[in-house]
What we know:
Layout: H1 2-18, H2 20-28, H3 44-67, H4 73-100, H5 134-142, H6 145-173, H7 177-203
Helix pairs in contact: 1-4, 2-4, 3-4, 3-6, 5-6, 6-7
Amino acid sequence: MRRRHIGWIAGAAAAVLVAAGAVTYAVAEDSGDAGPRTPGAESADAGFARDMAVHHQQAVEMSYIVRDHTKNEEVRRLAYDIAQTQANQRGMLLGWLDLWGLPKVSAKPPMAWMGMGDMPERGDGSLMPGMATNTELNKLRSLDGKQAEVLYLQLMTDHHKGGIHMAEGCVAKCTVDVEKRLAQGMVDAQQSELQMMAQMLKERGAKPRS
């Protein structure tokens, strides 16, 4: 367990370094004679980067939980792919905030940049649509085998739906082209994974919760 977490920390750090080229490009592509233009702290670009970094972190956490609680190679492979992809994307999002000189937290509620800052919260650790509660995460940790697989697939289905909604908001509202392209890539990839997870649930005699 300790070795896995050390490996993840090293991987996350590497992801930030690898993302440096994309981070530089995110500002450089908007440069003109007047010099680089960077988003403001309350912009959609900054809001999406902050909120999606938090959203992604939970997906990584859930994926590592289920990898420790099932021997099914199909689920373990999906969980690994989700964890690696979202950890790398999280590194890029946080890297952009660093380059823009913007804070990684905001006094405003999550998703205020989408005009959803007044939405009711689920509470219990669920900060944004699709996020699991602490109670749900603890339940996932308590299960093994098929039961863990089903709950993970259901939680990740909800998570992806919330993430897609947020990414579509960035596609519509963000101004940095490379960030908009990353958001669109998230939409495309997670829609594909939703179809895969629906089939995996069906094979286990279950279905998405919503």
